[in-house]
Amino acid sequence: MSATVSADNPPVRRLSDWSDARLDDLADEYDTPLYVIDLERVRENYARLAAAFPDADVHFAAKANTSRAVLETLEAEGASIECASAGETERAFAAGFEGERVHYTAVNPPGIDLDRAVELAADHPGLTVTVGAADTIDRLAERGYDGRLCLRVNPGVGAGHHEKVRTGADAKFGVPYDRAASLLESAADDFDVVGIHAHAGSGISGDDLGNHRELVSRMGELARTIDPDLEFVDVGGGFGVPYHPDDPPLDLESVADATRDALGDLDATLVVEPGRYLVADAGVLLTRVNTVKEAPETTVVGVDAGMTALVRPALYDSYHHIRSVGADGQAVETTVAGPICESSDTFGTHLLADPTRGDLLAVGNAGAYGYEMASQYNSRPRPAVVVVDGDRTGVAHRRETHADVIATETEVTWE
Ligand SMILES: *Cc1c(COP(=O)(O)O)cnc(C)c1O
Q1: pLDDT in tens, the chain (415 residues)
Q2: Ligand 1 atom at minimal distance to the Cα of residue 368
Q3: Ligand 1 center to 216 CA (angstroms)
């Protein structure tokens, strides 16, 4: 368990820990905006988490970062994977995950997703489908599916740093807690019922352990009342990461202790499924300053990455720390803003050393929900993604071009 505190695997990698020279070289070679993902840090995060939860299965919530190189890295380390759509499930198999290490969690699944999931389950026995509505169980049965089934339960407790990422108390996700046992028992006639699942939202921190405990203990209680016996109890992800340089790292040992304690005695295997914890601090977004404007209230620093490259600040009011790579000089309070014609297109207020046109800025904790949520709004091509691993560098996503942006557009032929 020393992995969690050892100097060569620190609990958090801060933005200041990235090498200026390396980031400069990458920006020069691959241009900006550019995502940089360090696969060695992904391995370290997985090792630390797996050490804190030695009896649990660790599933990576793929929606945080589906780059093939990231998935292959985690697969090789022994992780399992949690997929939010048929598309992600497909990518998990393409990255080499075996059927029994893949869970597909269907949220109001379009028919096309269920069709594909049933096909994938036939090719990859062991795939587990997690459903959050009785209706979805019927839709799987209609498609002839009789494989591994897990029920997503709405535990009635929520955690989270923002209302939009809190899902536990939201009726959209999972079946009501008090209907779960009877639904599972009836589903057991037609499916291989293997587990129950809950995910309370994102941002579990030291302060939020009360909610986490409550969720886990309710899941433990439910598992003990269910007949047939379950193979696993999945208590979700949402392990928080420090987005602000002054935020302490998550005390993983406390979370793990609280989880074991709250779960109580159980034959079933505990499953945890973090996304951001495994990849957030393994990534930065590099962006170049193109405009510096003195306004009466602030200095506006215009950069080439905007909400289309990283939407979390605009969408969730998230803080992402920003520093000027290699710059020194007087720190000035600035507003860092992107090139999108939209007032929410800003990365907030940051102290930057002597902001100058041409400066390279690094945006921290961009490895989770960064490229994944990128869009082409304003006809802006999505950034490139490079992965680094020790001294090696490789392109994981090439930079899009304007031709890519219009690639699906067709000249309308009227009928
Ligand atoms: C998003 C999600 C996760 C991962 O959340 P993180 O905050 O990235 O850890 C895990 N499970 C489910 C079902 C999710 O929807």
Answers
A1: 334 446 689 999 999 999 999 999 999 999 999 999 999 999 999 999 999 999 999 999 999 999 999 999 999 999 999 999 999 999 999 999 999 999 999 999 999 999 999 999 999 999 999 999 999 999 999 999 999 999 999 988 755 555 555 565 578 899 999 999 999 999 999 999 999 999 987 778 877 699 999 999 999 999 999 987 899 999 999 999 999 999 999 999 999 999 999 999 999 999 999 999 999 999 999 999 999 999 999 999 999 999 999 999 999 999 999 999 998 889 999 999 999 999 999 999 999 999 999 999 999 999 999 999 999 999 999 999 999 999 999 999 999 999 999 999 999 999 9
A2: 8
A3: 15
Domains and CATH numbers, the chain: 39-279 (3.20.20.10), 281-405 (2.40.37.10)
Burial category of 169 from C-beta neighbours within 10 Å (exposed 0-12, middle 13-18, buried 19 and up): middle
Q: What's the whole-model pTM score? A: 0.95
Q: Where does ligand 1 bind, in terms of residues with CB under 6 Å?
A: 61, 63-64, 82, 84, 105, 199, 202, 236-239, 273-277, 368
Cα of 379 vs centre of ligand 1, distance in Å, is: 29
Helix, strand, coil in percent for the chain, rounding step 5: 35, 25, 40
User: Residues near 411 by Cβ (< 8 Å), separated by ≥ 6?
Assistant: none
Distance, CA 236 to ligand 1 centroid (Å)?
7
Known active-site residue 341 = yes
Q: How does strand 80-83 pair with strand 102-106?
A: parallel
Q: How far apart are the C-alpha atoms of 152 and 129, rounded to whole Å?
A: 10
